[in-house]
Design a protein that fits this description.
By secondary structure, the chain is an alpha/beta fold. 17% of the residues lie in helices and 28% in strands.
């Protein structure tokens, strides 16, 4: 795995099993939105759609999706997803943003096509560690030839904090994506803030990877 130069010395923990039994349900994530426990949410959105791209997202919380459109001052429509009972898709009136409200693992049933780019922030690190292989397989199945996949993950001492966000090692990224992708770490950034002290940790490093087709 290629790596860029960095001044951050990130310790890798050999015991990748330490968080393997940690499980959050879909109801847990929906409750986080209701109780406003959403420190993972960024007020300033990423400007993909503003640059002319068609954007597709997946979110389990209908509240979170509706708030997105309200925050961005966008009108939208909603319709059921016939292949996934109880699921909906919310589409901006401009037609370039589609947000699916469903379990991500049900998404392939909706036949949403394939993608040139994936920006994975706050998703892979939130998936229960035991589900990562299934998640990675779905993401890779959605990629077109010549794809680029950006993935943001975190390094910290997983023996001190149970997550989420969950700890992700370089070895696990290589194991899950390396057979199909060339994996390059673009940067490592000190993401530690005062609020993270309550997690019981003393450092937090955000790592950004680029996956491209081998």
């Amino acid at each position: 795995m290629d790596d860029t130069r960095t001044s951050l010395d990130v310790k890798e923990y050999p015991d990748t099993e330490v968080q393997k039994n940690r499980i959050l349900t879909l109801e847990d994530w929906q409750e986080k939105w209701v109780e406003r426990k959403i420190t993972f949410h960024q007020e300033q959105g990423h400007q993909f759609a503003d640059r002319g791209h068609s954007v597709v997202g997946v979110e389990i919380s209908e509240l979170g999706i509706r708030e997105f459109f309200t925050e961005q001052n966008l009108s939208y429509s909603e319709e059921p997803i016939k292949e996934i009972p109880g699921a909906k898709v919310f589409k901006s009136s401009s037609g370039n943003i589609s947000l699916y409200c469903c379990n991500l693992f049900d998404l392939p049933r909706a036949d949403i096509g394939k993608f040139d780019r994936i920006w994975d922030r706050g998703a892979f690190v939130a998936i229960n560690p035991g589900d990562r292989k299934r998640y990675a397989d779905i993401m890779l199945s959605l990629m077109r030839k010549g794809f680029q996949y950006l993935l943001s993950v975190f390094s910290y001492d997983p023996t001190k904090y149970a997550g989420p966000p969950f700890y992700v090692s370089d070895d696990e990224i290589k194991r899950l994506f390396g057979s199909v992708c060339t994996c390059q770490c673009l940067e490592k950034v000190d993401a530690f803030e005062e609020r993270h002290k309550s997690w019981g940790i003393d450092y937090l490093v955000e790592k950004l990877y680029l996956f491209t087709e081998k």
